Amino acid sequence: xxxxxxxxxxxxxxxxxxxxxxxxxxxxxxVREYDGTYENEKSLGISCEGSSMQxxxxxxxxxxxxxxxxxxxxxxxxxHADPFTYTKRSKSEIEAHGRCKADFxxxxxxxxxxxFGPIINASDSNVAxxxxxxxxxxxxxxxEERQQYIELITADIGLVYNRSICIQGTNMKNxxxxxxxxxxxxxTYSKWGIRHPAVNGTFIRINRGENYTWTSIKNAKWCSYIxxxxxxxxxxxxxx
Length: 240
What we know:
Blueprint: E1 2-3, E2 9-16, E3 22-29, E4 37-38, E5 45-48, H1 52-60, E6 67-71, E7 76-80, H2 91-97, E8 105-107, E9 112-121, H3 124-129, E10 136-138, H4 144-155, E11 165-167, E12 204-207, E13 213-215, E14 222-229, H5 231-239
Parallel strand pairs: 11-14
Antiparallel strand pairs: 1-4, 2-3, 5-7, 6-7, 8-9, 9-14, 10-14, 11-12, 12-13
Signal peptide: 1-23
Protein name: C-type lectin domain-containing protein
Domain C-type lectin: 113-228
């Protein structure tokens, strides 16, 4: 964080009309503890906007945006894909690691590069394409520590993550239909809900409204998602 800004953070609201159309609206709250600070690293964009409302509208028009910093004097608007609930960025941290791609955030304790994805239609093909850039994959939850961290960073942004969160996991690759990650590695950690896993599937859902338990149900129409970036795998492939 760098000193200078008066801050307004926004959260985005998704809801589904009776017609089945997914609509995105915005609500905002002033977070006073962030006053006098701002973050421009990993921003989605920096622009000059006449008011915080115009800055909020700019955020609304970008499906990746979940928070804004607005400087009232210079009319500077900074959009972010990070809610800054439990993530903090610093230039020294970025310079020390250099592990994450430009639109990813770094959590040192888990050595995790991640980014939030918008709500998508949760078909097998859509979820498979969600994190398809080189080095990216749908996030793996392979430990209690990762599970707890995902719960933390999504706990206070329910208006954004009001749907289930799609994570990596499939039972379609193992001959015995055991649940594995996409590379075939057996899953040794899980947080299945009651009567789950219930069906075969190519991904898993985290249900925020049910104590973040996992389900394999396929009849839910939408989910959000989180991607992770594997710096070591990408670096190794570039050397071969």
